[in-house]
User: Fold this.
Amino acid sequence: MNVNGNPTRTIAPLPDCSGFVIIDQTRLPFRYELRTLYALADVAETISVMRVRGAPLIGATAAYGVAVAMNADCSDAALDAACVTLAATRPTAVNLAWALDRMRVCLQPLPPAERRIVAWAEAAGICDEDVTLNQTIGRHGAGLIRAIAERKTGPVNILTHCNAGWLATVDWGTALAPIYTAFDAGIPVHVWVDETRPRNQGASLTAWELKQHGVPHTVIADNAGGHLMQHGRVDLCIVGTDRTAANGDVANKIGTYLKALAAHDNDVPFYVALPGPTIDWTLPDGRAIPIEERRADEVTCLTGETETGELITVRVTPEGSPAANPAFDVTPARLVTGLITERGVCPASREGLLSLYPERG
Ligand code: MRU
Assistant:
C-alpha cells in the first residue's frame, strides 16, 4: 500500500540484517514514526504494547524477533529462549505460534553457526508469503464485492471492524485486501469503519490507511452498525480473524460477535477473510481459543491530539471505577456467511475448510 504515495511494507529488514524496521502503530494516526529493533527484548515489548499488531504482522514480527536473537547467540538455548519469550507476548493470534514453530523447525536441525543467515532468509520468506496470500485473498473477495456492485447503483457499502488491513499484515491486509482490489479495479466502494473501542484500531488505523489509499470511508461509533444495517446502508461486512477453529468459529477483535449478530438479523452477508496460517487445526471449535485480557487503562483512558498538535491521554471514567478489557470474542460459524481465504471462498464449517485444505482431513 502507499504511504504518502510510496509503496511501503509494514516491516522490513535492514540491509545488513542487524535489525528490522517497523511502523510504530501506537503513534498513528497522529505521527508516522518508524522504529528499528535490534534486540529480542525490544521485539517482545513491541508486540506486547502493540506497536505492531494484527495476527499476520505479529507472526512476521516474531519471525524477525528470532532472527535478531540469532544475531546475538545462535545456540539451542538461545533459540528456545527466543521462542518462549515471543510466544508469551500475545495469546490469541495463532499466527504467532505458527511463525515461531516455522522458525524453530527451520533452524533447530542446523549447526548453530549456520542459523543466523538462514533465520533472516526464513523471516523474509514468511513476509513475502504473507503478501502473496493477502493479494490472493483480495482477488477472491473482490469477486464478492463485484457481484454486489452489479446488482445495485451507487457504491458497495462495506462494514469492517478493527484493523484487518495493510497495517495488520506485511502488505494488503486480509479484510481490506478485497476492498483495495475492488477499489483499484474501479468498483465503487465505501467503507463503514467501526471505531473499535477500546484501542480504536478502526478510527486510528483503518481510517488512516484507507485515507492514504484514497478509499471513500466513514468512521462510525461501534454502536452504529446495527442501525445502519436495519436501514439498508450496509451491503456486506468483511472482518479479519486472529484464530479460526477447524469448524469455522472465528476469534476476532472484541465486538465482532455483536456485528455478526446484527448482520444475521438483517440478512447482511458477513464474511471473514483469513490466510491459511490463521487456521488452528488443533481446535475443533472456538471454545478453547485463548482470549487475551488487556490492561484496564485501555478502557478508562483515551489518547488523542489537541488542536495545538499535542498528544494527550485523558481518563474518561470516574477515578477508581474498575474496568474489564477482554480483547477478543468468538463468532460462531453459524453467523458467518463465508470464509475468504487464499484458496477461495468457502462455508464456515469443517467441511467447507476441508474442501479448500483437503490435506488437513
Ligand atoms: O489487538 P489487535 O489489534 O492485534 O487485533 C487485530 C484484529 O483483531 C484483526 O482483525 C485480526 O488480527 C486480523 S488481522 C489481518
User: Anything to note?
Assistant: The chain has eleven helices and 18 strands. Residues 2-129 form a domain with the Four Helix Bundle (Hemerythrin (Met), subunit A) fold (CATH 1.20.120.420).
